[in-house]
Each structure stands twice: as structure tokens, then as C-alpha cells.
Amino acid sequence: MSIWISWLARLRWLILLLLLVACGLLVSYSHWDDRLSFWVHEQQVSAAEQSRSIWLPGYRAVLQGKPLQGLDEVSGLTYSAASNTLFTVTGYDPQLIELSLDGQVMRRIDLHGFANPEGVEMLTDGRLAIIDERKHTLTTFKLDALTRSLEFADYPSFDLGFAGAGNNGFEGIAWDSRNKRVLLGKERAPLGLFSMPFPGEDGAAGTLQPLSSERLFLRDISSLTYDARTGNSLVLSDESRLLLEVDGGGEPVSFISLATGMNGLRSGIKQAEGVTMDSAGNIYIVSEPNLFYVLRKEPVAEQPAAAD
Fold this sequence. Notes:
The chain is mostly beta strands. The strands form five sheets. It has a five-stranded mixed sheet with strand order 2-3-4-5-9, with no helix packed on it. The chain has a four-stranded antiparallel sheet with strand order 1-21-20-19, with no helix packed on it. The chain is built from three helices and 21 strands. It is globular and about 55 Å long.
């Protein structure tokens, strides 16, 4: 009997040890410890500091999971102030898609010669840029109202390097209008943020400059967008189901989870692949294969006046 009791005790300790190891691996792999630590930090941020940032905890989903009719494998997202519309790209059948702010397909532009477009961004002077992850290139061009197709070979392209990255190359792109530079996000292996001087018409793209990525508690980077009002950027992670705000040096400022029940989401956002903001600060997200989301900042409740 005593042998049996001793064996059960050892079994319980073994199970406990295995659970602790599993929890440790989960924390290490998913950055749960970093998220929890930063969440605690968020609770201590003053209202004044919040007002100087995008401050993601203040956002709630107001449109969620709307199908983008007739599209598949959407990726990347950008806002055009000139047209007050959005643009995304599709990978399986390469196209540039123009969307209304409520997710209606307005125009399809065929992308000939592109292999795997993953990111799209409105730059300066009405130019758009597309990142082709498989070709490791950034291509710039202008659209007009009649454009219905684009030929890769007809426009300047810039080699982004990391030729051996395969399908783990650059996916995120954002235009930093304050500093006249392109911000780039490398998906993984290694994950990283970079900046690059604006690619001009003369073909001078400059060189990639790494930004701080050490404190990004993310498993991958799938999209970027820049907020000229604050000088901060949003970094979207598909695998972590997170949207993270970072400052100009890549340091975290705020974050929200894209899981079920968080920030008004009835269902979690799976395979989030594109994020952008409009001039009013509304956030738009697209996810594969073809779902569309809008998050809006809730108005700050006025504090009651103090009694005399």
C-alpha cells in the first residue's frame, strides 16, 4: 500500500513538473509574460500621456467581419486622403483593389508581373507602393481614374534585400510623412522593423536602417501604418492576434488583443493581414481570406464638475 501511495505522489509531482514546463514554453513562445507586464504598465499611463498617442485601448469594433465580395487572400491596406478610399492587394490572383470606407469593392486593377504582393502604401505626390514578398521588391507608381492594369516591368522597383528569406520577407509598409521615409516590417526569421529614405524618381532608394525591435512582443509582423498626428505607428501581428502601437524608435506605447470578446469583437480576427488609419483616426483591418473590420475610438467621458 505504501509503495502505491509513494508511486501516486511521484506521479503527481511529475505531472506538476510537466505542466510547469509546458506553461513556461507557452509563455516564452507567445510572449504572454511581456503582454501582461505591458498591460500593467498601461494601467498607470496618465490621461495626458494617452492623449498624445493613438492609445489603442480606447478603440472598439464598429464594423466587423464584413466579407469583401469576390476577393480572396487580401493582404495589406492603405488609406488615400485624396480619394477618401482604401487600397488593398490580393496575392493568389494579383490585383490592387480600391475599397470604400465601409468595405465596398469600387475598383479592381490587375497586377501583371507581380509574384506575391503583400503590402501596399500611399506615399507622397499621389504615388502608391507595393511590396512583393517573393521578389523582395518595392514598386512605386501613380494611378489615375482610368487605370485598370499595371505592368511590373513598367515601373521603378527597389531591391529590399534578404533574398534568402523566402516567404518570410517584408510584408508591412508605412509612409512616415514627418520624416519622409518608408517604414518596413519583416515578417519573421528574423522579425524586424526598418526605415528607408523615400525612393525618388531618380531611383535612389537609400539603404535600409534597422529600428529597435527587441521589445516587440510579437511572433510576426503582417502590416504597418503610420499616424502623422502622433508620429507613432501601428504594427499588426497575425500570429499573435495583436495590434501594437510603437513610437518613432520602435518602442511599445499601447496594444489591444484581436481575440474574441476584446474591444467589442464578437469573434476574434483570424489571419489579420492589413491595417491602416484614416485622417480622423479610425482604424481599418483586413484579414484573409476577405474580411473587413473598422475600429473607432470611443469619446472620452467628461468628468463631473467638482462641487463647490
